[in-house]
Recover the amino acids of this structure.
């Protein structure tokens, strides 16, 4: 049974940092693509970053390049999204999924990120 649990969200000021863990079960991270997505109210879910099971470099949306970083800890079955220099356009509910496509059938409950001064 595939399960994903996101956490680490919160209210931060512009320029701050957050690290979002996504604990997974029901599959291994060894060769599984896994992505982070976000969805703001009234908007479609968009891909933020994805790490594949191959040696290809991770993918980042243009809006987060240079600020966000994805990583995985296979021993802990956890994928992380490190978010630095958070901007007012970053607030959303952030989700992880064992897929680089937003058409995935598996999603966690999400974690809310709010950026406000």
């Amino acid at each position: 049974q595939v399960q994903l649990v996101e956490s680490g969200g919160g209210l931060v000021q512009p320029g701050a940092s957050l690290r979002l863990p996504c604990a997974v079960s029901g599959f291994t991270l060894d060769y599984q693509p896994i992505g982070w997505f976000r969805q703001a109210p009234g908007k479609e879910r968009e891909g933020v970053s994805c790490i594949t099971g191959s040696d290809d470099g991770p993918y980042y949306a243009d809006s987060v390049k240079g600020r966000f970083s994805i990583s995985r800890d296979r021993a802990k079955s956890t994928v992380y999204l490190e978010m630095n220099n958070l901007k007012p356009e970053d607030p959303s509910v952030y989700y992880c999924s064992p897929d680089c496509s937003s058409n995935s059938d598996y999603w966690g409950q999400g974690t809310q990120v709010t950026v406000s001064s």
The chain has a mean pLDDT of 92.
